[in-house]
């Protein structure tokens, strides 16, 4: 009789799956809109950082007035995208993935600090109801509720300065607005650098990036989840 634990090939891996009750499938975790908003947000944040730090005087690849125009247009598009995505997130129930949790947070932090360097497997297994690890949820939640609003509120106050400054010019308040905007900008740039680093720590350098392009990711599912997806959402499972 064949021992399935030592056999190989598709039939053997199906038999192993049935025995272990863990099913390896490609699952569409990122819908078309989710991928669209992820990449358009990434481009807009890059354009805003580039034009913003030109206005600030840190870099000088384009003229000041072009940077101002570029920054103002990109800012309006990003605010519109954020508002629409907030609406989409709530109406589709996707907000559940972003609710922060400290269950397993420490294990994930220790994995990135130590375990990953020792080649240990990631302690977090994505599930259909929770596709982000606790550190991701915590980081995205902070960006969406703190850094994002800090940037657009201070940015709008900066943009409409002439409406609220009055005759005195309100220089102290204006300086505070610029400072808050700069703090938000540095936090956003720090997040982007950390995010790009994390994204390269998958099975291969482009593993997670590919998932955000195609929408599909390798997942471990239960038999019930496979049956559910095949019956109700066949386009989501390969
Ligand atoms: C999303 C909403 C945002 C709004 C409404 C906004 C608005 C503004 C405005 C009005 C200015 C003054 C120059 C200008 O008129 O263009 C400015 C400057 C600046 N912005 Fe933004 N911005 C936003 C997002 C961002 C982001 C995402 C970054 C970087 C990651 C950023 C970085 C900067 C920097 C570094 C400056 C120069 C500050 C100074 O030293 O005067 N901004 N922003």
TrEMBL record:
**KW Heme (keyword) present:** yes
The record lists the membrane-crossing segments as 36-61, 73-91, 138-161, 173-197
Q: What is its main location?
A: membrane
* The entry's keywords: Cell membrane, Electron transport, Heme, Iron, Membrane, Metal-binding, Transmembrane, Transmembrane helix, Transport
- Report the InterPro entries cross-referenced here: Cyt_b561_bac/Ni-Hgenase (IPR011577), Di-haem_cyt_TM (IPR016174), Hydrogenase_cytochrome (IPR051542), Ni-dep_Hydgase_cyt-B (IPR000516)
Report domain Cytochrome b561 bacterial/Ni-hydrogenase positions: 29-215
Q: What processes does the entry annotate via GO biological process terms? A: respiratory electron transport chain
One GO cellular component, as annotated: plasma membrane
MF terms in GO: electron transfer activity; heme binding; iron ion binding
Q: How does it sit in the membrane?
A: Multi-pass membrane protein
**Localization annotation:** Cell membrane
> What does the similarity note say?
Belongs to the HupC/HyaC/HydC family.
Q: What is this protein called?
A: Thiosulfate reductase cytochrome b subunit
Protein species of origin? Cohaesibacter marisflavi
